[in-house]
Amino acid sequence: MPKNQSLHAPVTGSVVVPVILSGGSGSRLWPVSRKSFPKQFWPLLSDRTLLQETVLRGMAGGVGRPIVVCNTEHRFIIAEQLREVGVTDARIVLEPAGRNSAPAITAAALLIAEENPDAIMWVMAADAAIQDEAALAQALTIAVQAAATGHVVTFGMKPTKPETGYGYIQRGAAIEGIEGAYHVAQFLEKPDADRAAALVQDDRNLWNSGMFVVQASTILSEVARFEPTVHACVSEAVAGRSTDMDFERLAEDAFKRSPDISIDYAVAERTDLAAVVPGSFGWSDIGSWDALWELTPKDADGNAVSGDVFLDGARNCYVRSDSSVATVTGVEDLIVVVTNDAVMVAHRDRAQDVKAMVARLTAAGRPEAVRHNRIYRPWGFYESLIQGDRFQVKRIVVEPGQKLSLQKHFHRAEHWVVVEGTAIVTRDAEQIMVRENESIYLPLGAVHRLENPGRIPLTLIEVQSGPYLGEDDIVRIQDDYARN
């Protein structure tokens, strides 16, 4: 959110609850965005991540306790990113399996309705960008007014160019008594290039932002009307939810029985309550590297760069390096992205096709398609430095006050060298303090645990040796983070 700008509660007396959906993988922004750490967790446009910007935007525009719906694997990443920006009261709701947006929104609506069925949900994806917060505040005020009268409201963005990556909404007649809100004439699927060029010639056609503003009771009645199985399964999952540390875990069996369907197909395209509020507030779902190039400040030659980058004679390029130095010479309209385990080069006109390349990598069994070399855990992270036949070297960072599970391995031994901080190591019946520049050996089968008792991050180098070094060779005996 830009400095010195904020949203405000849009209608006196309205309870607006931000609902943030954080389930996407953002494969079109590969290799930065991957399933293990997708785009909403990256600071792509500011020093805050997209998730952080979204939650703060939602809290500024609402007065209810925010709800974040996410998958189990990302729960600790989300909790830590919210803590970093001072958000400590969010309800983090865990989906046991991905079932698209309709079940996720239904779960949030059921939780909200337990306290206030008339509360208005402001549903948004965790990975979108907003450039004009003041214009958004005006649109939100109109949307809440329409939602309070029983409409299912979405924001329609006025197109700035033909766009094949978005669905479209055609606005219909104005809603009587609510200036700036319209009935929806029809929803239009993502078009091809020719169809997109034709659509933008008609000012009734708007980009579908995927954001919704609706009363909890309204969306629940419409889900029950059009998708009764979704309503029944998710109701059972919410009723059977459990508390897991600071998380609300939906009942697994019931949620998995729910159909996999988006809120657009389940409700928005079928209901006679659909409404749209047109807006021009610089919205983007950052669905491609070309979209990110458009949003990023550029040099005099139209280049947008991030990281350790040198250019010579390049024009209108997006170049990002999160690893080694990247040099680009004498080219135009290219996207070049460098991470520590992958390099992606594409023409800006083919930015949407990155997703197809990720599919090819996945089909080939390449781990780089879905997983970063750096793997985040609730206690910190680890990353592989060198891997060979029967050995692997990792860097492990443990945050202050955190500890790994008590565990053992059947196929590998480990040698730990502390390079920063102080460790307390459990090795069978022993507890040993290991200081900087000291090491400890953990033989195959030893029950062990690593803990950081200090006030600075603990960094160590781990050398694994053995016939099998997979992460599934971990037998957890006791774990503070409730992992299986």
CATH topology of the largest domain: Spore Coat Polysaccharide Biosynthesis Protein SpsA, Chain A
How many DSSP-defined strands?
Answer: 26
**Average pLDDT metric:** 93
Domain count, please report it: 3
Q: Largest beta sheet, briefly?
A: 6 strands, antiparallel
CATH architecture group name of the largest domain? Alpha-Beta Complex
CATH superfamily of the largest domain: Spore Coat Polysaccharide Biosynthesis Protein SpsA, Chain A
Q: pLDDT below 50 for ≥5 consecutive residues: which ranges?
A: 1-12
Question: Which structural category do the helix and sheet elements fall into?
Answer: alpha+beta
The top-level CATH class of the largest domain is: Alpha Beta
Percent strand equals 25-35%
Assembly annotation: single chain
| Gyration radius, in Å | 24 Å
Percent range for helical residues?
10-25%
Termini Cα gap: 38 Å
Envelope shape:
globular
Number of helices: 11
- Cross-sheet strand order for the largest sheet: 16-17-18-25-20-23
Write a structural description.
The protein is an alpha+beta fold and 484 residues long. It folds into 3 domains: 16-279, Spore Coat Polysaccharide Biosynthesis Protein SpsA, Chain A, CATH 3.90.550; 289-368, no CATH class; 374-478, Jelly Rolls, CATH 2.60.120.10. The chain has helices at residues 50-61, 75-84, 101-115, 133-148, 193-199, 216-226, 228-239, 252-256, 263-268, 289-295, 354-363; strands at 16-22, 67-71, 91-95, 120-125, 152-157, 168-174, 182-188, 205-215, 242-244, 247-249, 274-279, 304-312, 318-329, 334-338, 343-347, 374-377, 380-388, 391-398, 406-408, 413-420, 423-427, 430-434, 439-442, 448-451, 458-465, 475-478. A hairpin with a 4-residue loop joins strand 14 and strand 15. The protein is globular.
